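Hi everyone,

Forwarding the result from last night's run.
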Amino acid sequence: MKKLTFKDCSLTQLDKAFGLTQIWQCELLKKWENNSCEITAFEKESLLNFQEALIRGGRAWNEVELENKFISPLIMTAKIDDGKIGYFLERPLLGIVGDYELSGTVDGMIASGFREPGEPYFCFHEYKRSIENQGSPDAQVLAAMLVAREMNQNTMPIYGLFVVGLVWNFVLLNGQEYCISAEYTAANEDIFAIFKMLKALKQIIKSELSANTAAPLK
């Protein structure tokens, strides 16, 4: 059994090891991006407050500051947590995928459960600045998504995200194909599109879970 950590992965390596193909047109990703979620007045005010702090100091923040002062507040404002699924930070993830044991610590994930994560549905990695970090954030999150799919033991698409400083990219893994979105910059109007995608994520996850279980999640 070959062992591979998330931080040592590259997209080319994952493509070859697991027979993956990157595509540039994806209907599921397009649907995610064009979701119909609305932003309330309270949410808009909160987003602008978070953004103000990001614009003022975000480029100088370290990873912990970026996570705690911007990313997590954004996700929590989207009201991900409930009795069925939760948002978890800095959790280890390990799984057997093909001939490989993939492992690492996921900066953030949305998974079943509310005290401890169960099946992971969404994974993300975040960085302060791309030039100051080793490894490939796109490959690291894709590797975590492969483990998540293996743990779920179903054919549901897996959703992901990587953040480099102020820039966000969303990822979707469906079968042996994956697609990476265009860049969203959190310091401009893109913050509203970012938030709508986070807000839609909960609806997407619960809808797909309902389709794969006898009892729908409410």
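The radius of gyration is 17 Å.

Cheers,
N.
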